[in-house]
């Protein structure tokens, strides 16, 4: 990595023309190791110091097509969507990004990255997140196919805590999950999801137990 | 005791609170960990001592540019296993000082290599192990580091200017060990670190950088040392960190990556500092680390059945230390040095 930061020093001296060759440089490294943290750091530095945003979203598309589990590519996508001077910002991009992410989730629900990306799209605006039916629908669809999907359960739990009013269909799905274990049966749906999580995600049983204590009756 | 570092004590306290309300529970855990496949401590000691001598081995060549850090990993592991005396202290101190650049105040990764903060911290940490901070020109080193702080509060690694939150931690940790933290702009340093906080509660190398357990350790450690943990959403970050535990019990460093023993340190120490370590399954993690040992030749690897190296040997033992594995000395989660070493530095007045 000494070569890389020497290049950075030089690039700063040369100016914005260096952006393209720097992007080519990191692209080559990422072609061999698509999650290389140092390469991504350098690429982000170049974007923010020298520019070259124009084709970055397309680059993220390409990488995610090659490997939808590439968390670095999802992170880069977030950087582009929120900070690119030519895309209009998060609010402008949010709608199409939600569609893109939900589609990725449907194809591979057991992928931590798009679930996290989805949360990022709504930043601090819980009300907007809860109001977007596509998201609660996505959770429901995934759970109908696989009721043990921890990512979907935990996302649903957060939505419920933020004030999501569960549809009858959602209530039915949760009840069906609970019925598979006859000793449970909770009046409060969030508490029900919490106790399902304690069983489906035993590694983190202490976390879900704690979460349950934060759910006020 | 006069003027103990409140943040180290806080980290100590949080370990005590987190690891069970009763002594009974703690000893049950310890027993369980000891039973599940032992720590081959003697083998690891021999591995490290031998590796230190083999200067022409493949591993030695690969590590040549960061030998000072290799020394820190190997020697700290020896100390954690109560075997620091297995090496010649004077020889080590002399070698470390041969990496020092008196004109700049920094240390290189090896003799004749250019100075960098990475190796400056490693050198200082090694000298802490041997209680030989007296050989240092602390003010000169402090000047070296202070000169690397940028206007936005960030730190460069060396004169070439690369910025990374790792260097923030390194600078803060080094200066704190030398009792010279006040020489940098601490407020700005903290401000910069906080600007690298992501929506998931984690931290990257710079603003917008992907949350990564290694970077998170650096930021959380730096915030702990500077008394600035209130900037962290402990529940949010704690959740991100406990999500690193994989089915095999090991920890990964970011979503959808494989478990690696080194994250037993970075994730675990971060969890301890923010008082959320009970959110992972410690027994399963200990079992994972123990499965990464080469019980015949010594050493620990990144994951089971891979080649061992000094780096993963240190992080595996350090992770077990954080979980109070029997026979391993306790380690400070923020300073990454044995607790008795840290106490010696902060509980006795030194200049």
From TrEMBL, chain A:
Native source organism of the sequence: Aegilops tauschii subsp. strangulata
EC numbers on record: 2.5.1.58, 2.5.1.59
Keyword Cell inner membrane: no
Any Pfam family hit: PPTA
Family from the record: Belongs to the protein prenyltransferase subunit alpha family.
Cellular-component GO terms for this entry: CAAX-protein geranylgeranyltransferase complex; protein farnesyltransferase complex
EC supergroup of this enzyme: transferase
GO molecular function ontology, one term from the record: CAAX-protein geranylgeranyltransferase activity
Keyword Repeat: yes
Cofactor(s) of this protein: Mg(2+)
Keywords on record: Magnesium, Prenyltransferase, Repeat, Transferase
Record-given protein name: Protein farnesyltransferase/geranylgeranyltransferase type-1 subunit alpha
InterPro entries xrefs: Prenyl_trans_a
Coiled coil regions, renumbered to chain: none
Automatic annotation (TrEMBL), chain B:
Domain Prenyltransferase alpha-alpha toroid residue range list: 39-336
A GO BP annotation: gametophyte development
GO cellular component, one term: Rab-protein geranylgeranyltransferase complex
Keyword rRNA processing among record annotations: no
Enzyme Commission code(s) on record: 2.5.1.60
Cofactor: record remark: Binds 1 zinc ion per subunit.
Region (Disordered): 1-37
Cofactor(s) required, per the database record: Zn(2+)
Pfam family of the protein (one): Prenyltrans
Catalytic activity: geranylgeranyl diphosphate + L-cysteinyl-[protein] = S-geranylgeranyl-L-cysteinyl-[protein] + diphosphate
Keywords carried by this UniProt record: Metal-binding, Prenyltransferase, Repeat, Transferase, Zinc
Domain of life the protein comes from: Eukaryota
Molecular functions per Gene Ontology: metal ion binding; Rab geranylgeranyltransferase activity
Annotated family: Belongs to the protein prenyltransferase subunit beta family.
UniProt function note: Catalyzes the transfer of a geranylgeranyl moiety from geranylgeranyl diphosphate to both cysteines of proteins with the C-terminal sequence -XXCC, -XCXC and -CCXX. Required for male fertility and root tip growth.
Oligomeric form and interacting partners: Heterotrimer composed of the alpha subunit RGTA, the beta subunit RGTB and REP; within this trimer, RGTA and RGTB form the catalytic component, while REP mediates peptide substrate binding.
Name this polypeptide is given: Geranylgeranyl transferase type-2 subunit beta
């Amino acid at each position: 990595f000494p070569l890389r930061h020497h290049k950075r020093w030089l690039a700063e001296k040369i100016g914005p023309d260096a952006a393209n060759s720097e992007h080519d440089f990191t692209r080559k490294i990422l072609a061999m190791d698509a999650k290389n943290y140092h390469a991504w750091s350098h690429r982000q530095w170049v974007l923010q110091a020298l520019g070259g945003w124009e084709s970055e979203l397309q680059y993220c598309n390409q990488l995610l097509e090659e490997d939808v589990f590439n968390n670095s590519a999802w992170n880069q996508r977030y950087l582009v969507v929120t900070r690119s001077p030519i895309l209009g910002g998060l609010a402008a991009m949010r709608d199409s990004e939600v569609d893109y992410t939900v589609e990725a989730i449907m194809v591979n629900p057991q992928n931590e990255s798009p679930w996290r990306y989805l949360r990022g799209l709504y930043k601090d605006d819980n009300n907007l997140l809860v109001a977007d039916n596509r998201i609660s629908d996505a959770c429901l669809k995934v759970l109908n196919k696989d009721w043990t999907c921890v990512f979907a359960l935990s996302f649903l739990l957060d939505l419920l805590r933020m004030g999501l009013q569960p549809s009858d269909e959602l209530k039915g799905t949760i009840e069906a999950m609970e019925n598979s274990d006859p000793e449970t049966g909770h009046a409060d749906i969030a508490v029900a999801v919490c106790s399902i999580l304690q069983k489906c995600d035993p590694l983190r049983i202490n976390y879900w137990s704690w979460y349950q204590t934060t759910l006020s009756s | 005791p006069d003027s103990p570092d409140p943040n180290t004590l806080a980290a100590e306290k949080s370990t005590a609170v987190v690891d069970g309300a009763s002594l009974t529970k703690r000893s049950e855990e310890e027993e369980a960990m000891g039973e599940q496949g032992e720590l081959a401590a003697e083998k690891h000691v021999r591995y490290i001592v031998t590796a230190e001598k083999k200067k022409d081995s493949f591993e030695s060549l690969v590590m040549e540019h960061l030998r000072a850090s290799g020394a820190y990993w190997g020697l700290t592991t020896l100390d954690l296993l109560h075997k620091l005396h297995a090496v010649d202290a004077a020889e080590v101190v002399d070698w470390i000082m041969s990496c020092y650049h008196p004109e700049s105040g920094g240390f290189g990764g090896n003799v004749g290599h250019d100075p960098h903060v990475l190796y400056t911290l490693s050198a200082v940490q090694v000298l802490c192990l041997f209680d030989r901070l007296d050989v240092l020109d602390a003010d000169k080193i402090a000047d070296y580091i202070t000169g690397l702080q940028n206007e936005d509060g960030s730190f460069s690694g060396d004169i070439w200017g690369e910025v990374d939150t790792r260097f923030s931690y390194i600078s803060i940790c080094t200066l704190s060990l030398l009792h010279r933290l006040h020489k940098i702009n601490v407020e700005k340093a903290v401000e910069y670190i906080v600007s690298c906080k992501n929506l998931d509660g984690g931290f990257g190398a710079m603003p917008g950088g992907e949350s990564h357990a290694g970077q998170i350790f650096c930021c959380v450690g730096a915030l702990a040392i500077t008394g600035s943990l209130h900037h962290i959403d402990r529940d949010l970050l704690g959740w991100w960190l406990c999500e690193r535990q994989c089915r095999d019990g090991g920890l990964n460093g970011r979503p959808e990556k494989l478990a690696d023993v080194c994250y037993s340190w970075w994730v675990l120490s971060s969890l301890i500092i923010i008082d959320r370590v009970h959110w992972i399954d410690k027994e399963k993690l200990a079992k994972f680390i123990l499965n990464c040992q080469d019980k015949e030749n010594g050493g620990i690897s990144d994951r089971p059945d891979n080649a061992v190296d000094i780096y993963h040997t240190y992080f595996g033992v350090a992770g077990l230390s954080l979980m109070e594995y029997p026979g391993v000395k306790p380690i400070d989660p923020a300073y990454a040095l044995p607790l008795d070493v840290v106490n010696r530095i902060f509980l006795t007045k030194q200049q």
